[in-house]
Specification:
Blueprint lengths: L24 H4 L4 H22 L3 H33 L10
């Protein structure tokens, strides 16, 4: 059994606390940020749509529902395409189970 490093900062990557080879990829990779922002906007649009529907504003409810769907679909597409790009750089298939 290999000896443990005296200082935890010497242990790179930190295999003791993570099982993924690219921990934090979603935040480190700035190309993920538009997808994350679109998903957050989709959640906000969903909340506003529910408020509009609850108050009886049918027109705003329809517009809000469309904006919600567009934000969620676009955000998911951006995140999936970036994930695929990273996997291609690593030479792994998209559905590979070892890490991001």
């Amino acid at each position: 059994m290999p000896s443990k490093p005296a200082n935890r900062s010497e242990e790179v990557p930190d295999n003791a606390r993570t099982f993924r080879s690219h921990a934090g990829e979603g935040i480190e990779d700035t190309r993920n940020w538009p997808g994350i922002i679109l998903m957050a906007l989709g959640l906000a649009a969903l909340a506003l749509t529910l408020v509009a529907a609850g108050d009886g504003f049918e027109g705003w409810s329809v517009i809000g529902a469309l904006v919600t769907v567009v934000c969620f679909v676009a955000g998911t597409a951006v995140l999936l395409l970036e994930h695929r790009r990273i996997k291609n750089l690593e030479g792994k298939p998209l559905r590979s189970s070892d890490g991001h």
